[in-house]
Amino acid sequence: MPKSSFYIDSCIFLGTVIQDENTRSCKSFISRIKNGVFTGYISTFVTGEMINSILYSDNIKPKIKSEILHAVTDMLISTKLENFVPSKNDMMVYSKLREADSRISESDLMHVACAKILDIPLVTTDDKMLKSRGLKKHVDIVSPADVLGI
Fold first, then answer.
1. What is d(CA 149, CA 75) in angstroms, rounded to the nearest whole number?
2. What is the CATH number of the domain that holds 82?
3. Who contacts 123 (Cβ-Cβ below 8 Å, separation ≥6)?
4. Out of 6-10, 62-66, 88-92, least confident range
5. How far is 103 from 96, CA to CA, in rounded Å?
6. Range of the domain at 144
7. How far is it, in rounded angstroms, from Cα 70 to Cα 59?
8. pTM for the full model?
9. At what angle do helices 10-17 and 23-34 cross, to 10 degrees?
10. Helical ranges in 1-150 per DSSP H
11. Domain count of the chain?
């Protein structure tokens, strides 16, 4: 039986090291990727967004930013992830999706486009994406708790 595949938003990785209501489900989801239960895809957009979120966050104390950055980097290295690099023609999908929901940020829309190109669900904890009817017409968008049934 083939493994389920998911495109993983940066908030899932960040949710494992920055404690909030999603930490448990994010850790469990990433654990299943590490153990080969699921196949996880990311792109350079995910990596860049994580680094940017950590370095420029006002909610993370400056003293622990490097610690969090190292933890996330180590997690990316140790997790069995597939790296997706969209081609020039793939970016047409991004252009078409911009009209689906104007409330979604450009970086999040890039994650949606990558998931659509790969034809796999996007896993996120972002409420705007999870509740977007416009985007859900194009891509299955789920939370880690939904995937895990918790």
1. 23
2. 3.40.50.1010
3. 6, 7, 8, 9, 12, 29, 142, 143, 144, 147
4. 88-92
5. 15
6. 5-148
7. 17
8. 0.92
9. 110
10. 10-17, 23-34, 44-55, 62-78, 91-97, 106-118, 127-131, 133-136, 144-148
11. 1
